[in-house]
Amino acid sequence: MKKVIFTLITIATFFLSPLTSEASHFRYGHITWTRVPGTRTVTFTVTTAWRYDFTESVNLDFGDGTPIVTVTGTEIQYVPNNYRVFQGQVTHTYATDGPFTASFNNCCRISTLQNGADNFFTVSSLVCLSNNNLGSPVCSSPVIIEMSAGNLNQYQLIMSEPDGSPITYSTTALASSNYVPSVGGNTASVSSTGLISWNTTGALDGQLYQMKVSMSDGCAATEIDFIIKITACSSTPASAILSGTQSINLGQSANLNATFNGTPPWTYRLSGTTTDITTSTTPTTISVTPTVLGANTYTLTSVSNTCGNGSVSGNAVVTTNVPPLLLACYPFNGNA
User: Is residue 94 within 8 Å of 64, Cβ to Cβ?
Assistant: First the structure.
């Protein structure tokens, strides 16, 4: 009889646990939030990715001692026979300005990872409502970032921030957690401006690695938890150098020069834009028309070819000046 009672308690505990809906097959996580100005009411957006045949929800802890709530997402992307992406929202009102750490966690990561296989996962976001902060940074990173085997790979994270505050990036390195991939003595890193760099010499085609990056605007913070996939490449990896520093009058256009190396075609993106451009010409001319008086700095945020993401370097500073006044001369009437 005691054995039966124990079994029933165990089953009930399993099904009633606030974390059981997050069973496994985890691939990606990102928690962002915005507030209603002048209030402490916050709307969380939870984005997650799971195995394609797995429908998921997460249990969000607001970090202030109030009850955990289940966030059921709507499918926003489906990659056949690979994964599904879900996104859901929930609103919560805090009693003070915090900070509070909102999070969800459970087991397990996918078993095919080279680091952290079958491990528990935690995704968090720091809620800071002081100084009228309007929200957390938001990252548009894909679920899986591809990097070519045996090369120095770079990938620029693209972010937005509702307050317009500068964002700093770092790798989340927690004790006993393999949040930063490493192979052959080379460890992935992220610069303070969000450029992920990793020399994958020693990695093999098809291998998967977990990585986590945290982002902060000095008050609020969040993190993304994603996967890096190693791909084989028989071509030469891409690299690009931007140049073309010059001085022009405000309203004029300037031509920048992008020099590419590796196997064409190359796909690149210029800083301050959201559009990828593909070319097979090197060097190639990029026309810009600055609208801000003074120094305008341009960089390439990404370059890729069939080998995946490559490396970018160089910059161009276009300084705009006030156009000179034009004086028109007219003949005098009569004797001049």
Answer: yes
Handedness of CA 288, 289, 292, 294 (dihedral sign): positive
| 60 and 71 Cβ atoms separated by less than 8 Å | yes
Token couple for 191? 């610069």
CA distance 93 to 97: 10
* Segment-wise mean pLDDT, segments of 10 residues, the chain, 336 residues: 39 37 74 95 96 85 97 91 93 97 91 91 94 91 89 86 91 68 93 91 93 93 95 82 94 94 92 91 94 93 84 92 68 56
Structure tokens, 83: 């994964």
| b/e code 78-92 from CB counts within 10 Å (16+ = b) | eeeeebbbbbbebeb
CB 69 within 8 A of CB 56: no
Bridge-partner residues for 269, per DSSP? 302
Only one residue has tokens 């990102």, namely: 30
Residues 92, 39: Cα–Cα separation, whole Å = 11
